[in-house]
Fold this protein.
Amino acid sequence: MSASAGVPLEAVVLAAGEGRRLRPLTERWPKALLPIEGRPVLATLLRELAAAGIPRATVVVGHLGGQIESFLSASCGFGLELRLARQERPLGSADALRAAVAAGAAAPLLVVAADTVFTPGDLGQAVATFLSSPAAGALGVRCVPQVEPGERAAVHVQAGRVLRVVEGPPPKTGQETSVGAPLWLLREPVLARLDRLPGPPFQLADALQGAIDAGEEVLALPLGATRDLTRPADVVLHNFPYLWSQVMQRGP
């Protein structure tokens, strides 16, 4: 199904990863189909993309991709026109995006990883901010306390612009720090760099940094809280309140 009207931008959902830190769960299920609040992460993301006015999305599959293909085939499309692409080997986020581009995805693009649920409305706001700007790219950014475990790239931000993206967790400073969320908005100057990145692995952080070093503007898009599936305990954390509420509603 396709949305009848939408913004001049399409989405790419990166759902090919092995989810090694989520083992043993991801030995049987792809992480994109693991639940948050009882619903597969992929389903929530696709609904949020449709709510943001995005008309079509390319879902990049790899590890246990047949399960994702079956899930999407059995769905109503979530209000989007859906396309599938396959990443043959786990060679990084930029390589997965290259697979989507080869399957027909074209700039401008919103790229999101299928292991995160965003605060409702954040994706729509990110799209509106990016499309009202001539920037070559944008990166979702969260401000987190130093005590929170770092799983995302550290981001140096000044006056709403990304100055540097550092792959890996931020250094311990004892203060709040900005980290990247798995949300990228990209125009052609960034996509043109996908075929000349160091690696493997080939990472979107390097494509963004290359564009910044070449003088391109990359926006920092502040986001609210996110819910991420990184380790098995996260599945319990993000589903127990929902399950408990269902038990309480049923009563003794």
Remarks:
- The domain at 10-250 is CATH 3.90.550.10 (Spore Coat Polysaccharide Biosynthesis Protein SpsA; Chain A).
